Every structure is written in C-alpha cells, then in structure tokens.
Amino acid sequence: MTLAKRIIPCLDVDAGRVVKGVRFVDIRDAGDPVEIARRYDREGADEITFLDITASSDDRETIVHVVEDVAAEVFIPLTVGGGIRKVEDIRRMLTAGADKVAINTAAVFDPEFVREAADKVGSQCIVVAIDAKQVAQDPPRWEIFTHGGRKPTGLDAVAWARKMASYGAGEILLTSMDRDGTKSGFDLALTRTISEAVRIPVIASGGVGTLDHLVEGVTEGKADAVLAASIFHFGEYTIAEAKRHMAAAGIPVRR
Amino acid sequence: MAATIVIVDYGMGNLRSVAKALEHVAPADTVVRISSQPAVVRRADRVVFPGQGAAADCMRALRETGLDEAIVEAVRSKPFLGVCMGMQVLLESSEENGGTACLGVFPGRVKSFAAALDALPAGRALKIPHMGWNTVHQTGPHPLWRGIPQDSYFYFVHSYYADPTAEALRLGVTDYGIPFTSALGHDNVFAIQSHPEKSAQAGIRLLENFARWDGQAP
C-alpha cells in the first residue's frame, strides 16, 4: 500500500457556469458546476480543480458561490485558480470551502506574494501554476509564459519551479503550453525534469488525449497527479475507466 | 435537548468543510457549531478539533485563547475527534518549528518526514508534503471504523507524523516510505492524521460514526 497517484478533472468556469461544453448524456444542465462535480466525485475523481476564466470583474464573485455550493455536497479536495492576486482572495476561497488555490500570473509578477500567502494560510493551500513552453532543443530548455502562452517572461522553468518551492508552494501545477489542447500527450521531458527538480508534488497538465497519456505522465513524467479536461468532459472516458487503465499499468490509484 | 458538536476554532484555516461534512451526516437534532470560546467547548456534547497551520502557531493560539485547557478537559470527559494538526498536538512535543511543546495528552512525539525519509535509500525520491490519498490500516475494531472497509483510502496533507510511544494508542497505520501512526486514541478520544471531511465516503462515514459515538472504545 502506498500513496495513490491522483486523477484531477479540471473545469473552466465563466460567470458561475461551466464552459467548454461538458457533454454528459445523463446530466440535465451541462453548465451546472455542482452537478458536474457530483458526477466526477461519484466516478472516483481524487480532486476537482476549478479554473475561473470570468473576464468581467462584476461576475468574479460568482466563483465563490460555485465553491460554496460544491463544497456543501462534494467531500473531496477542491482547488480554485484564476484571478488569485491577494491573500484576501485566497482567504475568500478557503472560507467558501476550497482546500487549495492555484496562483499563476500573480506569482510571476510578484514572487513574494507566494511567500506571503504560504506564511498566512500554510503551504498546503498554495499551488503554483506554471505555464511553460520549450524554447531550446538540445539541451532542452523551457521558459515561463503568461497570458495563455503568448508572453514570454525570460524565466527558466526549472529555476522558477525550484524558487516557488523554496518560497513555500505546496504543489506545482505544470502545464505545457506546447501541448495544451493538442491531445498529443503531456510534455514528458518537461514534466520529469520539473518533478525531479523539486521535492513538492507536481501535477502534470496539458495535452491529454488518451488514457495511455495519463499513464505516461506518471511512469515517464514522474508526476504525482495528472490533470485533464476534455477527455472527461466530452464523455470519451470516465474517471473510473481512467483509474482501471492506470491500475492495469501497475500505478497505485484509489478505487 | 439537542446534542451539540462544537468544532474548535483557533483562528487558523478553514473549518467550513468540517462543519458542512458533519451537518451532512449528523442526526437531524444535532447542532454543529464552530466556536473559539472555551466556555462553548466546555458545554459541548462532542468536540472536534481540526488543526491547521504550523505546530508552534497552533500551540500559541491555543494558549492565548485558553482553548488549550478546554481541549484537555474535553479529552478527559467527552467524545473527542482530533484531525490533522489536531491529532499531532495531543502528543508531548513536535519537531516542527525547531521543537514545539504540545498538549501532552498522550506520550510520544511528532517527527519530520524529511529527516526520516532522507535516511532511507529510496526515501529521497518521496515528495514532501505527504499529499494525496493513502490507505489506513485499522489496527483493530473501533466504533469510528464501523462500516469503513479495511485499508480504505483517506486524503492526507502533512509533513510531520505522530509517533506515540505506547503501542496500544495506535488505531491506524499508513505507509509512506516508513509505516507511521495515522490514527490514534484511547477511551473517548479518536484522532486521525488525514482529513475525513475531504476523504469521500470513508471519511464521511467516520464523521457519521463520530456524530453518534458515545465515547466507549473496545
């Protein structure tokens, strides 16, 4: 018996509604975060991540209610990312029932924010989200990008991950911007390089198109958890199928 | 009169999840209350103590508010559930924060995973914190394990682990590079390292059992 590798479905939420068309035949309201979260919980999701993509500041408050409603019914860890810029934002999410927050852009612009956040609420609540893109082949090098992969920062991904860990991040959510949305699998070299560079857990993200991709993320990428969106949302695979597949490959999973 | 479950609030972290989960499973006439007042803790029928944050901060907050004494009294007199840091501070001391004196309800110490794992050949590859789902092996029957299959998965997040000196205190064991005590207790006290409020069916069942527990142990 040992620590299980986690499968984490990720939901994009815009003004309180799940977007990117979740399609389940047996769900009445495909935009209802509570109904979808309940469904993933039943299938055996190990955690659920909500990414708030609400652009209008008037609608920002809606994610708090989403978290409150989900946390009242779904008793697994919940992570919220998107728009987390102040310790006050973190406290609001935790009070609403989130267990962790993912900090992305705010960490790049102000790394001290991560240190302050970890001091105030504890490292276990702080996930640093890293969006990385490959910028050199031999030897491979990855750089941190912001604005959905459009703006380079000049920061080396490995050095950045180490720095965030030393500033008190409890976990790293690592997304390959080269693979995100391609369904061609995780950037395994990136995942493995980061996972071996830090002592804190690493969640692999970006590029999952098949169940084998999830397996590779753990066996070759050395990830502690794998995050995926579309393969679960569109009903291609259930979380339960993903777990059976991982277990068959010899990976410890919670079932 | 309705029974009350009081969740001890020492000002750190989020207790809403614990309260919500208890409300979800407690008998209809049970009142679940979050409180930072020692007097309210003293009047409770059952007490849940979910700790968060670092050991030194936790102990300082408990001493400043007088909750330390109320907790020790509850431990001696009524069904008591310690969770995470709320389990660790029941021991005598913790290695966290350069050494922290704790409540000393049970003999033993809280030790660092980093030190223990670095001493093992394969241990350096294990991540810290121990974060995620791991199995809890029940050392024997207990009213709080009722209905929970042996070796069920629970959700953990911690970098230090409890090491009670008395073997009889161990109620659950988990393996993370080394076997460690993931649940302990005696008589009316049950304490668990993982977060039952985040541990899906197994954790919810444990809270359901606690909400009905008369404090008698086998």
Please write out the topology.
The complex is a heterodimer of chains A (255) and B (218).
Chain A: E1 6-14, E2 17-18, H1 33-43, E3 48-52, H2 62-71, E4 78-81, H3 87-96, E5 100-103, H4 105-109, H5 112-121, E6 126-136, E7 141-146, E8 151-156, H6 157-166, E9 171-176, H7 188-197, E10 202-205, H8 211-219, E11 225-228, H9 230-233, H10 239-248
Parallel strand pairs in A: 1-3, 1-11, 3-4, 4-5, 5-6, 6-9, 9-10, 10-11
Antiparallel strand pairs in A: 1-2, 6-7, 7-8
Chain B: E1 4-8, H1 16-25, E2 31-35, H2 38-43, E3 46-51, H3 55-65, H4 67-77, E4 80-84, H5 85-88, E5 93-94, E6 100-101, E7 108-112, H6 113-118, E8 130-138, E9 152-158, E10 160-164, E11 170-176, E12 178-186, E13 189-192, H7 200-211
Parallel strand pairs in B: 1-2, 1-3, 3-4, 4-13, 5-7
Antiparallel strand pairs in B: 5-6, 7-10, 8-9, 8-11, 11-12, 12-13
Features:
heterodimer; A: 255 residues; 35% helix; B: alpha/beta; Rossmann fold; 4-stranded mixed sheet
Walk me through the structure.
The complex is a heterodimer of chains A (255) and B (218). Chain A is an alpha/beta fold. Chain A has helices at residues 33-43, 62-71, 87-96, 105-109, 112-121, 157-166, 188-197, 211-219, 230-233, 239-248, and strands at residues 6-14, 17-18, 48-52, 78-81, 100-103, 126-136, 141-146, 151-156, 171-176, 202-205, 225-228. In chain A, strands 1-3-4-5-6-9-10-11 form an eight-stranded parallel β-barrel, surrounded by eight helices. In chain A, α8 (211-219) packs across α10. The radius of gyration of chain A is 17 Å and the shape is globular. The model of chain A has no long low-confidence stretch (mean pLDDT 92). Chain B has helices at residues 16-25, 38-43, 55-65, 67-77, 85-88, 113-118, 200-211; strands spanning 4-8, 31-35, 46-51, 80-84, 93-94, 100-101, 108-112, 130-138, 152-158, 160-164, 170-176, 178-186, 189-192. In chain B, the strands form two sheets. In chain B, strands 2-1-3-4-13-12-11-8-9 form a nine-stranded mixed β-sheet, sandwiched between helices. A four-stranded mixed β-sheet of chain B has the order 6-5-7-10. In chain B, β1, α1 and β2 form a beta-alpha-beta unit. The longest helix of chain B has 12 residues, at 200-211. Chain B is globular, with a radius of gyration of 16 Å. The interface between A and B is medium-sized, with 32 and 36 residues.
